[in-house]
Amino acid sequence: MPKYIHQHENWTDFRWQDAVVSTSLGEVRLLQGKVLGQMHSLGFSSKEKRNLEMLSSELLNSFGIENEGLDQEQVRSSLAQHLGLKTVGLVPVSRYTDGIVKMMLDATQNYLEPLTEERLFSWHASLFPTGYSGMNKISVARYRTVEIKVVSGAIGKEKIHYEAVAAKDVKAEMDRFLSWLNDDVVIDGVLKSAVAHLWFVIIHPFDDGNGRIARAISEMMLVRSDNSAERFYSLSKQFLAERRDYYEMLNKAQRGDGDITEWLVWFLDSFRHALHETEDSMRNVLFKAAFWEKNKDININERQRLMINILFDGFFGKLTSSKWAKMTKCSVDTALRDINDLVKKGILVKGEAGGRSAEYMLVYEK
């Protein structure tokens, strides 16, 4: 009796229950179109900012799943430089971070290009520029030549979660995978992303970095399904939030008999959660854009502009005149004048408390 999916004959003939998967897929596609429409309604600078945020989030969270930390400011700076964005506060970027960013940009900006073996190897080289994974020397930019087992637990008490495709079969299996990936197979783009993610992980073609590359491939397929290089959600952020379930679902599918219904439904549910999170955050972005359009002719000084944007972007706690003064580096009297001016203009509203402890909130017209 085969223990792992790749030990079954014709194991890549994946199957699933159409009725079950179609329901989840329909919900995701509807929400995807809605959020994409919201994205297109943003101004150019807001779209650029959103794209930068989501690409950064995708990288940071994808590496976070593997407990591999990246410097957030370096990632952001590298992305901004490669995308030609004028962003303040850029920092020097290491060769390692820049290589990882180039990999993500290749996947998302050149999404219509076929994924070849050479291109895949270049991604792997970007992950391991020194030829080492931690203290271990690994094969870089070529398929593994050793057997792979995914284990956990203390030495001598290891638990084997998965044994990958035999090393001698990796090349043939990857040729078949890449042929399918690049072919115009009649399958929904989101489903193709989910299948590609699982298929690549099953093969486990490299000594290390398989999960990160699987997520990059999955992201490339999602970009194709959006038919837009502008990113407006982060699926890896959702995977990280549900990391235990993520690994459990992959493990179950890898030990299954080829019916991947459960994996597809879980993937689609995760995607839907990611889209809902984007929808919530986009609502605030749209309110902000509408506010500045409506008030473009109102005289607002730089301190007021700064604080209004901070309130839109998620100010935590109660806004008081003393906090205003501290954050804008002005006197409390000046802060009160700024605040009262905005109250008169109908931009801020005063809470019930009086005096210096009075709190103020933005007036939302939803």
Structure description:
The protein has two domains: 5-281, Fic-like fold, CATH 1.10.3290.10; 295-362, Arc Repressor Mutant, subunit A. The chain is mainly α. The strands form three sheets. The chain has a two-stranded antiparallel sheet with strand order 1-2. A two-stranded antiparallel ribbon has the order 3-4. A two-stranded antiparallel sheet has the order 5-6. The radius of gyration is 24 Å and the shape is elongated. The model has no long low-confidence stretch (mean pLDDT 91). It contains 14 helices and six strands. A hairpin with a 2-residue loop joins strand 1 (132-133) and strand 2 (136-137). The protein has helices spanning 18-40, 44-65, 72-83, 95-109, 117-127, 170-182, 189-203, 210-226, 235-241, 243-254, 261-294, 302-312, 321-328, 332-344; strands at 132-133, 136-137, 149-152, 159-163, 348-350, 360-362. The chain is 58% helix and 5% strand. Helix 7 (189-203) runs antiparallel to helix 8.
First-last Cα distance: 60 Å
Structural class: mainly alpha
Number of helices: 14
User: What's the domain count?
Assistant: 2
Q: Biggest β-sheet, characterized?
A: 2 strands, antiparallel
Give the ordered list of helices and strands: HHHHHEEEEHHHHHHHHHEE
Oligomer: single chain
Report the radius of gyration as a whole number of Å. Answer: 24 Å
Strand order of the largest sheet: 1-2
Strand content: 5-15%
The pLDDT mean sits at 91
Low-confidence stretches: none
Instruction: Give the number of DSSP strands.
Output: 6
CATH superfamily (homologous) name of the largest domain = Fido-like domain
Fraction in helix: 55-70%
User: What fold name stands as the CATH topology of the largest domain?
Assistant: Fic-like fold
